[in-house]
Design goal:
849 residues, alpha/beta, eight-stranded mixed β-sheet, seven-stranded mixed β-sheet, 25 helices, 17% strand, rod-shaped
Length: 849
């Protein structure tokens, strides 16, 4: 014992003999070296006796499973390869001290105490002659055991290097400053799980997790992430543990939500196969019609555990996981020859023994030299070359590089002073293990992302079990993160191996069938958001994809198709000559134009006859010409609207009709005045003549011209596209510009028509031989009836039908004036010339008086 400790009054203890030879027992492995790498490996399951107080504690235990000897083999091989590599750690050898913790916390403590002691007797905190050359502890235990290891090693500042997929809690450097993870944290795959669910459109999933702190953390972290991405979780089931083993769970939630066909299963190494067996038996009680898909959080090679789990895969038709792919085959070129020197492996691989009493073991025989590695069973080769083994190998290689980097750094500093490089201590390794460049250059397939988090590219695999119970790993896709902040998700469409029931397609996992395009989701009351009804999109709206949250409107120039799942271009429409309505109105206008021209020709030809003279030849000509122009102006409303036609159509219509009504009004007033002038001494006689009639026509028409001039000067009509009035059409029309001016011009015509009708109605009983008051009254009644009905009809129609209503009103009202005023006269002129005489008119007048 060193002198400083003696000064403290401690009892001197002689150093125990150190182990100077290599030894290997069934569970622990030791070999000395310049630097010692210790390892705590979970390779064997055992049943320990519980402590009782009525007898001495028992240290015996019973094995529950064979030792997973391939785990320590990979570590042994890595160290042997490093010691034979002259470029890595030259003149320095690595030793090892490997302990199996049997998946138990109390054995883990015992193994650590043994590793922290320098001799055969476990006495920690004593350094006898500097022989404890431990530089790092490798471990692959579960999260709770890793936490125990970290708390002990932190006392001695010894690096703890983990190759297991343990909890994120261990990444907290404040609690665990000397913990170094060599694989990505389990949370790194959560975003990939969401991508996978979204790709296969699985929106209704269940969660399984063991009833542990890690399982509870898994549920708390994943539930909000799934909900945020529109994935519902109606089943969130914790698997109870009894004696640290999973037990049966209630299947009542599964009966309620039979639509759930995809389940996420959080696993730790200790619970994978047993947990899957519990889940399979739960499904067996449910007797589902559709195979279930299990997505595990295991990022390691689970084929070996599935091989020996006893699963029938009767109801679990697919187990998907995220697999950390590596180039391990290239690394293991010299692994198999190395095995020939390991007697323990040789005995278990070939069921033989080097002992003289091998025949006493049932089923075993004496090992012979002719056993060759080529004769190894395929299962053994898969175990040896599994990802679990490679992670251990890769971790040892990374630690060796860190040790080499530490020596290189110290050599550069001491070269100036020609001092001897002293042996490396464990605490001096921390700067190199914590350097980000260490991960990016040393770890195969693992790197630090932009946030400084350990990351890796993952393969999405389906573990397929065939009838002969063999397990095949089929790559379905991959998730790439390197060089991109967002996950790059890709699928392998050529994956040909699928389990029973999943030949071409994976089963759906949805609460309800997808809403087809043309409809939108409506959430059902008191049910998860993924349970919804589908309602067709409302008139004028569409949805272009399945499960649309809402329907949207098309652009102005487009409209929904019949299925309301896409927008199609609208048809540009106007009152064209080619369509039936346009052809009918144009033909009617043309016919009335010819008829008006014929009547005008008759009146010109018979202008000297008594009936034409008696009805004021000048006013009749003005009225006929205005009617002729009104029929012709209707052609401005038919055909494609253009800038010129838009400017002319309403103003020409207003002025021409104002002239026509003014002519009728002047004709009516002239008739009334002529009757009054027959009485002796009446001063009305002096008002009779052409001057009065012309003044009435000019004055009334001029007011309309002024209104139209103001209209054109302030807000003239223009060509316009109406995209909102009709769903499937773009209406090419003439916008009136100022609606107020349009109705002002129309109202003025109505005012003139009302005065004319009133005067004619009051004069309807005047002698018919001298005037046409009755005919004018009836014609104005037709005229006013047409335009009174025009206003509501015009306002209730859209597009070309609005134009057609105005054209029809123009033709009907003009035809009413033409027919009621001039047709009786033409009848007399053409068919009854005997009535068109001055004598008849005089006789008729006397009889009426």
């Amino acid at each position: 014992m060193s002198q400083p400790y003696a000064d403290l009054g401690m009892v001197e203890v002689k150093c125990p003999l150190t182990l100077e030879r290599e030894w290997i027992d069934p569970f622990n492995y030791y070999k000395p070296g310049d630097h010692l790498i210790s390892a705590v490996i979970s390779a064997t399951r055992a049943l320990f006796h519980s402590y009782v107080f009525n007898k001495s504690p028992s240290t015996s235990f019973r094995l529950k499973a064979a030792t997973k000897y391939w785990k320590p083999l990979s570590l042994l091989f890595a160290i042997e390869e490093i010691n034979q590599n002259s470029r890595l750690l030259p003149n320095t050898t690595l030793g090892y001290n490997i302990h199996d913790n049997f998946f138990r916390g109390r054995v883990t403590y015992e193994a650590l105490v043994d590793q922290l002691s320098s001799g055969q007797v476990n006495v920690p905190n004593y350094n006898c002659g500097g022989q404890n050359n431990l530089v790092a502890v490798l471990e692959g235990a579960e999260s709770h055991n890793s936490i125990q290891i970290s708390r002990i090693l932190s006392i001695y500042n010894i690096p703890q290097v983990s190759y297991a997929f343990v909890s994120q809690v261990l990444s907290d450097k404040r609690q665990f400053p000397f913990f170094y993870r060599m694989v990505p944290k389990e949370e790194a795959q959560y975003s990939g799980i969401v991508k996978l669910l979204q790709h296969f459109r699985w929106t209704f999933v269940g969660l399984f997790a063991p009833d542990t702190d890690n399982g509870e953390r898994f549920l708390k972290m994943l539930l909000p992430l799934l909900t945020e991405n529109g994935i519902c979780v109606p089943i969130s089931q914790s698997i109870p543990l009894v004696d640290n083993q999973p037990v049966y769970i209630s299947f009542l939630p599964f009966q309620k939500w039979r639509q759930v066909n995809v389940f996420l299963y959080y696993v730790e190494t200790n619970y994978l196969s047993l947990g899957i067996i519990i889940i399979e038996k739960t499904f067996n009680l449910l007797k589902p019609k559709t195979g279930k898909v299990l997505i595990t959080t295991a990022m390691w090679d689970i084929s070996l555990e599935l091989n020996y789990s006893g699963l029938s895969f009767q109801h679990i038709h697919g187990i998907l996981s995220f697999f950390l792919e590596t180039n391990k085959q290239a690394k293991y070129g010299g692994f198999l020859p190395f095995l020939s020197g390991i007697k323990k492996f040789w005995e278990e691989a070939f069921n033989c023994s080097y002992s003289k009493h091998a025949f006493s073991v049932k089923g075993w025989r004496r090992c012979r030299e002719r056993e060759k590695l080529e004769m190894l069973p395929q299962d053994d080769l898969e175990r040896i070359l599994s990802l679990d083994s490679y992670r251990i190998y890769n971790t040892v290689q990374a630690v060796a590089r860190a040790i080499n980097a530490a020596y290189s750094s110290r050599s550069q500093q001491r070269a100036k002073y020609k001092l001897e490089v002293q042996r490396l201590l464990a605490w001096q390794l921390h700067p190199f293990l914590g350097n980000s460049q260490f991960y990016n250059s040393s770890m195969d397939g693992v790197y630090l992302d932009e946030n400084g988090e350990l990351a890796a590219d993952l393969d999405i695999v389906n573990w397929v079990k065939f009838p002969n119970k063999s397990i095949l790993r089929v790559k379905l896709g991959s998730i790439n993160r390197q060089g991109s902040r967002d996950l790059q998700f890709s699928t392998n469409q050529d994956a040909g191996a699928w389990p029973k029931g999943l030949k071409q397609t994976l089963p759906p996992s949805r609460c309800t069938a997808s809403c087809s395009p043309g409809s939108a989701k409506v959430v059902q009351e008191a049910k998860p958001l993924c349970c919804y009804d589908c309602l067709p999109c409302a008139e004028g709206t569409i949805s272009t994809h399945e499960d649309a949250e809402h329907c949207s409107r098309c652009a102005e120039e487009k409209h929904p198709n019949q299925d309301r799942d896409q927008c199609v271009p609208k048809i540009v429409t106007f009152l064209a000559y080619e369509e039936q309505l346009g052809t009918l109105l144009a033909s009617f206008a043309f016919f009335l134009t010819l008829t008006t021209g014929l009547v005008l020709g008759i009146f010109v030809n018979y202008k000297d006859t008594p009936i034409v003279k008696a009805n004021n030849w000048d006013l009749s000509c003005i009225l006929l010409v205005s009617l002729l122009l009104s029929f012709l102006s209707s052609f401005l409303f038919i055909g494609r609207p253009r800038k010129v036609t838009c400017l002319l159509r309403q103003t020409a219509f207003s002025i021409i009709f104002s002239v026509a009504i003014s002519s009728v009004l002047a004709k009516t007033i002239t008739v009334v005045l002529a009757f009054l002038a027959r009485k002796p001494g009446n001063r009305v006689r002096r008002w009779l003549g052409k001057c009065l009639a012309n003044t009435i026509v000019i004055f009334c028409s001029t007011l309309q011209v002024v209104i139209c001039s103001i209209w054109l000067g302030t807000s003239p009509p223009f060509q316009d596209f109406d995209t909102s009035s009709q769903v499937k059409e773009i209406i090419l029309q003439c916008n009136e510009g100022s609606v107020a001016m349009f109705y002002a011009a129309l109202s003025y015509m109505g005012f003139l028509a009302a005065i004319c009708f009133t005067v004619a109605f009051l004069a309807r009983n005047l002698p018919g031989a001298f005037n046409e008051a009755k005919l004018i009254t009836f014609s104005m009644l037709v005229f006013c009836s047409v335009w009174v009905s025009f206003v509501p009809t015009y306002l209730s129609t859209k597009g070309k039908y609005m134009v057609a209503v105005q054209v029809f009103s123009m033709l009907a009202s003009s035809a009413g004036l033409l027919g009621c005023i001039f047709m009786p006269k033409c009848y007399i002129i053409i068919l009854r010339p005997d009535l068109n005489t001055k004598a008849y008119l005089s006789t008729k007048t006397k009889l009426e008086n």
